[in-house]
TrEMBL record:
Segments forming domain Pyrroline-5-carboxylate reductase catalytic N-terminal: 4-99
Protein name from the UniProt record: Pyrroline-5-carboxylate reductase
Pathway(s) per entry: Amino-acid biosynthesis; L-proline biosynthesis; L-proline from L-glutamate 5-semialdehyde: step 1/1
MF term (GO), any: pyrroline-5-carboxylate reductase activity
Gene for this chain: proC
UniProt-annotated binding residues for NADPH: 56
Reaction equations catalysed: L-proline + NADP(+) = (S)-1-pyrroline-5-carboxylate + NADPH + 2 H(+); L-proline + NAD(+) = (S)-1-pyrroline-5-carboxylate + NADH + 2 H(+)
């Protein structure tokens, strides 16, 4: 029988994960999601056919896995609310909150719990997510396997041995879809400025991004070689790449990902002190 999974918080990240799980065949009857507002939950019920609850405690009573998917800033109060019920059953805890250390979360929930920290991303919704996972020492082999299966149902799942590596996962996967969406916006605007209708520019930019990612995934050649394959000497691509290199695009990505990882560390410091 499928494990009963309760999502505390049913926002962007939670709905991307349970939406992707259902899409990949996970039984919807085994999924419950919570929110303080039933108005918010109603469309999720009709769209996904999952159970919903406005009361977090009731929602975890029979859960085998509890996925904590509220904002990091309110996690402590949510844990205080759940602590007693969680301690009575001791389900596997999976947190997707950025920055929040597993040890802090376990303490907030009363201790002695199997906790997996996961840093997923929203393309999970279309089965193309990329997630990093870290297990505390109480997580059993079976629980690790279950978490792998759940996250593999919605994309790539990579385990890390050192919890601080989740900062890097946040920088290049958790937050990174937003970098690509920014590039899509910029390419669409560029296409429009150069004379294409906006909808056509968007389709071309998105298909090109999709094609480049598929090609890089299936090719034996490195991204550098694939890039060179597009650049005819003295041609158009060489000019464009030169502009991007001269503008310091590589360094900009290093700076952006450093800022992202630094913010994850700051959040860990702030939350870990509570
Ligand atoms: N978005 C992303 O790409 C990623 C997010 N994450 C992590 O996922 C977590 C959720 O982020 P995201 O989905 O973006 O945020 P959202 O705001 O979309 O979702 C959080 C949801 O939690 C609800 N909520 C608030 N209080 C409670 C409560 N007491 N009990 C149950 N639900 C509650 C909110 O409702 P209301 O709006 O009514 O307050 C909201 O619907 C964060 O910890 C974030 O760090 C991790 C990786 C990627
Ligand atoms: O921006 C954030 O804090 C969350 C975590 C990773 C993606 N979104």
């Amino acid at each position: 029988m499928a494990s009963q999974i309760t999502f505390i918080g049913a926002g962007n990240m939670a709905s991307a994960i349970f939406g992707g799980m259902i899409e990949s065949g996970y039984p919807r009857e085994a999924i419950t999601a919570t929110s303080p507002s039933d108005e918010f939950l109603a469309p999720l019920r009709s769209r996904y056919g999952i159970h919903t609850q406005t009361d977090n405690r009731t929602a975890v009573v029979n859960a085998d896995v509890v996925v904590l998917a509220v904002k990091p800033q309110i996690m402590q109060s949510v844990c205080a609310e759940l602590c007693e019920t969680i301690q009575a059953r001791k389900p596997l805890i999976v947190s997707v909150a950025a920055g929040l250390p597993a040890e802090t979360l376990e303490r907030w929930l009363g201790g002695d719990l199997a906790v997996i920290r996961c840093m997923p991303n929203t393309p999970a919704l279309v089965g193309a997510g990329a997630a990093g996972l870290f297990a505390n020492p109480r997580v059993t082999t079976d629980q690790r396997e279950l978490a792998t299966q759940l996250m593999q149902a919605v994309g790539l799942a990579e385990w890390v041995d050192d919890e601080t590596q989740l900062e890097a996962v946040t920088a290049i996967a958790g937050s990174a879809p937003a970098y690509f969406f920014l590039i899509f916006e910029a390419l669409e605007a560029a296409g429009t400025r150069l004379g294409l209708p906006a909808d056509s520019a968007r389709r071309l930019a998105l298909q090109t991004a999709y094609g480049a990612a598929c090609m890089a995934q299936h090719s034996d050649q490195s991204p550098d070689q694939l890039k060179r394959n597009v650049m005819s000497p003295g041609g158009t691509t060489e000019r464009a790449i030169q502009v991007l290199e001269d503008a310091g695009l590589r360094q900009t990505f290093l700076d952006a990902t450093d800022a992202c990882a630094k913010r994850a560390r700051e959040m860990a410091d702030e939350l870990g002190k509570r």
